[in-house]
Amino acid sequence: MKIVGIKEVSFPIKSSIRNAYIDFSKMTASALAIVTDEFRNGRRVIGYGFNSNGRYAPSGLLHERFIPRLLEADPKSILNDEGTNFDPFRIWDILMSGEKPGGHGERSVAVGVIDMAVWDAVAKIEEKPLYQLLGERYRGGQVDDKVFVYAAGGYYQPGKDLGALQDEMKGYLDMGYSVVKMKIGGDSLAEDLRRIEAVLKVVPDRGQSLAVDANGRFDLKTALEYAKALEPYNLFWYEEAGDPLDFELQAELGRHYRNPMATGENLFSMQDARNLIRYGGMTQNGTTCSLTAL
């Protein structure tokens, strides 16, 4: 059992949408395929992975460091003890060999693309859905028959007025979503409040059906100004007000904002996530409910 090839392609997103920090007109994303010598049901097993559309394609890192390391590794070193499947954790160790601690950032985006493809291949070799395979390995066979999801949209876009924003959110609700999320921080506070109030007119349960996301744009002063204005709406959550590594800002914000907050999607290591829990004012039973999404 071995990997016989790895292919990566960078795709342009080329969208006119923007959030509080970036527009997507030049944004790219990587798609990667790990080709194995295994066959199931007459078809070659190929694992696929891709990266978030909020990060540029990490093609350089993939082709200069991580793909060569994996292809140059001893085929036996990437298998489980029985030799019956690939071992994602051994592969992760190989990918990270020669890397200094810290500075995870874009490096983990590149490794994550490969990691996703490896797990996809592992599940296909086992001939099981990945969620079932993970449940069997790490939850004693227990799997969830449903999971909470929400629709993320509400981007800033040229010519997009309040009516178009409302129509977008109503469209998500018509698809069956119960919670929608919109961007803030890309305009003035007054304009963002007009946008929020427009959406609240078309969603059920008012604030409990709407989350907002600042994409890390605010300094502490601005984060607190928004918090004061947002609090009466009782939103589903107020997401990533400041820089994701500014745990002091997050903790201070939690002392002033009594409703749920969310952050963590732009942390790229276990150590960063641990520091968020330690120093970011995380509570589960107080007025602040900070959530991490790694």
Question: What this model shows, in words?
Answer:
By secondary structure, the protein is of the alpha/beta class. It has 2 domains: 136 residues, Enolase-like, N-terminal domain (Enolase-like, domain 1); 141 residues, Enolase-like C-terminal domain (TIM Barrel). It is built from 9 helices and 9 strands. The strands form 2 sheets. A 6-stranded parallel β-sheet has the order 4-5-6-7-8-9. It has a 3-stranded antiparallel β-sheet with strand order 1-2-3. Helix 8 links the parallel strand 7 and strand 8. The two termini are 31 Å apart.
SSE run: EEEHHHHEHEHEHEHEHE
Chain-averaged pLDDT? 93
The number of helices is: 9
Q: What form results from the Cα inertia axes?
A: elongated
- In the CATH hierarchy, the architecture of the largest domain is Alpha-Beta Barrel
CATH superfamily of the largest domain: Enolase-like C-terminal domain
Instruction: Give me the oligomer status.
Output: single chain
Please bin the fraction of helical residues.
25-40%
Rounded radius of gyration (Å): 21 Å
Largest sheet: 6 strands, parallel
Question: Strand-residue fraction?
Answer: 15-25%
